[in-house]
Sequence to fold (306 residues):
Amino acid sequence: MTVTALTPGPRVRGRRGGRVLAPAVASCLAAAISLAACGSSGSDGSPADAGASSAATAKTVHVGVLQLASATVIDQTVAAFEQELKTKLAPRPVSSDVKNAQDDQSLITSIARGFAQSDSDGVAVIGTPAVVALAQQTQDKPVFALAMGDPVGAKVAQSLERPGKNVTGSVDYVGPAVLLRSIMKISPAPKRIGTIYDPSNQNMQVWIKALRAAVAKYPGVSVVESTISGAQDVPSAARSLTGRVDAELIGPDATVLSALPVVGSAAAGCRSTSAAATRPSRAFWPASARTTRPSAASPPTPPPRC
Fold:
């Protein structure tokens, strides 16, 4: 299967500001399945008769869903995708098989292999490592990325305009420079911006590079990075920023998102140990989960001092 476009799609609003691009992906999958049904033919190569067409219409559509981890914005995205797909394919029944890898690399590989060998009509995936894993397991089954930052850099697509492979979907990327403009309007402005991320995530490699470039434009401001290799590292990574940063900006890393309450708790409950920096750390919702882009007229409100 070759897809023709991988571009941002229309958004719907989730609870707590989650931006979900899943409807665009659901529409793409629905179109692919409909085309496959329309292309059915008889054994002699002639177009299928009305009876066969009716049978195809009544056939249940089986869709696999590979979810990297659990997080509010991820759960919302999957739910929106499932609902939109059912709407687009009605009256055909849709069966979704959702599997959560819990940010376990061995599980990601195992689930990806299972979906690749299954008889599902297509697989929707959320989480860059999961998309890459499934793309490596199958080159003919349709793979739909529900939200991905850099499919070209992750080598699952040749370009956004013409992916050229069996992977398509939605791109949801908000540059850290957009968020930083708002954060820097806080008074007093933070001098040390902390962040936590998994360096093996291709999406985050792009994002952290952009964050460094954005911060470099503010004299005297620096980035303090804390890296992880899995969800189990997030609590210690969050604690490692205690007293070392004035604010925290979390990027679209599904692993960190799955443990975001831990990050927020650590940031809200600490103060810098430096006598010259008495501000508490501030954690900001990740780029992938903002409802709207920050407005210069309404900078984020820092949490109360401990």
Q: What stands out?
A: Confidence is low (pLDDT under 50) at residues 1-21, 37-43, 271-306.
